[in-house]
Amino acid sequence: MVIEPVSAALACKTIIDSGKMVEKEAEDAIGWIGKIKKILGPFKPEIVNFSVNYKTKKSELKLSIYAPTGIIKKSKTIEIPAYQGFQIIEMLDDSFRPIKGAWVQKDNKYVLKTDQLTKGSERFLLQMNGTISESLLNHLVRIQPSTNPNKDPENDKYWLACHLKDTNILEKWWNQLNVSDIEIQVKVAIRRCFTNSIPRDVMVNLEAQREWMAQISRRRIDRETLFKVQRKAHAARASSALNLDEIYRLLVDIASARNLIKFIMVDSPFQLQDVIEDKSPDFYPERMNVDVSTELDFKTPTAKGNLIFKRKEYEDDIKSKIQQEKNKKGKHA
Amino acid sequence: MKIIEKYVAPWALRGEDIPIHLRWEPEKKYSLIRVILPDGFILKDLMNVRECNAQKQEILINRLAKDGYFGLAISNDHLFDTQIFQDTVQIEFISDEKTIHIERIPVRIFRPFIRILESTETVVLTDDVVDNKCVPIKIKLKYTGFGDAFVGIRVKVGGTWRHTGEIFYHHLLKLLMEMDEHADSENKKFTTELIQEGKLARTMDKMGHEVVYERETIIEDLKRYLERCIYKKDDVLEDFSDIDMEEAGILLHSLKEKLSERDFADRFYSNLGTVLIEVLLNSLKRTPSDNVYLKDSDNTALIEKSVNSISVEVSYKDALGNDYDPLPISIAINDKRTKKIGISIPIEVNVTSEVIDAIRGEDNGNRTSKCGIGL
């Protein structure tokens, strides 16, 4: 029986259907904004900014409202239900001064204390927060780093691509969407740099120490073999000038995130956020996790660029640090 | 139409998503966007699309969520036998059944390639073998292409395939079993310094544990870690056979029987220097050449019965876990020994790399390394 690969027709249907499923989730997660706009209808609410923080999964809405004294007097009470995941953060007057105690939370509602409003101010800015689910975010934004880097003689380059995936989910309500702190984690391979850079005499020394330590740690010791490996180990140590603990300290330091970050660059519009050491039982990990971030909005729905690991410089740094340590040791000897 | 940005991921592996997008000045002069995918490519995702349908490799986009931007992601699972495979995605903007704008977007898929340059044809076993060590089997490999290659070696002796490497933690356990708790002063001095400086805690932390300072707790943690590696088939062990797992299990069991917590702790601490050297050398030897990762640092063919030949197989995967065709080697065994007992034949792997620059399409020089001392 021949199994057909997933056809483009089926893929199209699946992708579009999953978008429709998320629309319902979007309504649940951010539907409060439409409701609040309706409640505040008499005050001509206008959305100034709507942003989503990808990392914290928080949304922030800034709403401009027009509330001159006349309209305020006509509205006896102004109340907004405390929808799930929604919070009023603050209200500013037309000089952008925060109005303390403008809104109070009472019986699962936010109530506007009109007597607190700044006299003479007609325009106000209301700032509100909400939460966005992970599945909704995943449908809103698509992120991808390359699995393997391209290598030139100097650098390892990883491509980064970031897209607003379904702008319609949020565009229904706003044209000011901004998704910030979109994080991409890139796994940067570093292990080979050590194999390329550790000098031969250090390797010979390590092999000789390994053999020697293994021999003298055994219960039954063959004196002749022990003497041979001991001489070899001493000779190797003398020529390499570094002990195991010195090599250990050096390599742990070189492989640390705070050292590696100096050799990472990212193209705009991406920004380097952090380098995190991999949990690996080795002296130095095979890969380092590098976090980069960017932001997208309706005007710029795509971000493309590269993460560059300056491999040659990193290898030169390993070589020079080992040499420095050797020189230092030589002076003390 | 004024295209303001055209993007395609410049390189990809087999099965890796290739994102593509176009951005243009919104003008809505078109009524339909037709995408023609090359044969073998599958659609993985669409960006900014509200309505579409497709037939075979042709996708018709009837409505975008917002004019001025369109993206898609595609991939190809086919195992290509060339280092680079290139084809073109065509995106057409159509108005009144006429194509008003065409974009042709090249997509490129790369692969790692490993060939056997040379290998030992015959191994001669004689009575001169000292310490059960004989002349090694030498395998010279050549890597060309793009992307990481994870290389494993296995050997078939008398009908059974076995991995030639040893589970690294199994090796460490064996080493600890052999060692005396009253080890040498060099090792002890190093251990004491590490503990004083909190470096040991850092090493343990790297092993995936919380930082702990209690002597017995660290040892218990290490044992638990080893148990997890051996019994729960961690990633590092995914390809080991049941026989390997069973052997590691027996060893762990005997370690528990023979050594008390305290003894194990003493032994581990007294020999920490050796353990760390083992860890360091293991990780150095496993990356013998650019883009090549060996599954095991030391490989050995174990011959327990008299045979005339053995089969060696070099297999490799890319970074996404795609398998490529394994490379078979047949080696004749000329056993001239008077007493035919089990013997381990070391396998020495030598790798040369020629890495392709996916942007310039050139190779990046030639770096050679031997897996072993003097890398």
Q: Indicate how many domains the architecture of chain A comprises.
A: 3
Q: Radius of gyration of chain A, Cα only, in angstroms?
A: 31 Å
Proportion of residues in β-strands of chain A = 25-35%
> What would the CATH topology of the largest domain in chain A be?
Immunoglobulin-like
CATH C-level label of the largest domain in chain A: Mainly Beta
- Globally, the shape of chain B reads elongated
Provide the low-confidence segments of chain A as ranges. Answer: none
| Beta-strand residue fraction of chain B | 35-45%
The ordered string of helix (H) and strand (E) elements of chain B is: EEEEEEEEEEEEEEEHHHHHHHEEEEEE
Layout of strands and helices, then pairs:
The complex is a heterodimer of chains A (333) and B (375).
Chain A: H1 8-39, E1 46-53, E2 58-66, H2 69-74, E3 79-81, E4 87-92, E5 103-106, E6 109-112, E7 123-131, H3 134-140, E8 141-145, E9 150-151, E10 156-164, H4 168-171, E11 177-189, H5 191-197, H6 200-216, H7 223-240, H8 244-254, H9 257-260, E12 264-266, E13 271-277, E14 287-297, E15 302-309, H10 311-332
Parallel strand pairs in A: 1-11
Antiparallel strand pairs in A: 1-2, 2-7, 3-6, 4-7, 5-6, 8-10, 9-10, 10-15, 11-14, 12-15, 13-14
Helix pairs in contact in A: 5-10, 6-7, 8-10
Chain B: E1 3-8, E2 12-13, E3 18-24, E4 32-36, E5 42-47, E6 49-55, E7 58-64, E8 69-75, E9 84-95, E10 98-110, E11 112-119, E12 122-125, E13 137-145, E14 149-157, E15 160-163, H1 168-178, H2 185-196, H3 199-206, H4 215-231, H5 242-258, H6 261-270, H7 272-285, E16 292-294, E17 299-303, E18 309-317, E19 323-335, E20 343-357, E21 362-370
Parallel strand pairs in B: 2-10, 12-19, 13-20, 14-16
Antiparallel strand pairs in B: 1-3, 3-8, 4-7, 4-9, 5-8, 6-7, 9-10, 11-13, 14-15, 14-18, 17-20, 18-19, 20-21
Helix pairs in contact in B: 1-5, 4-5, 4-6
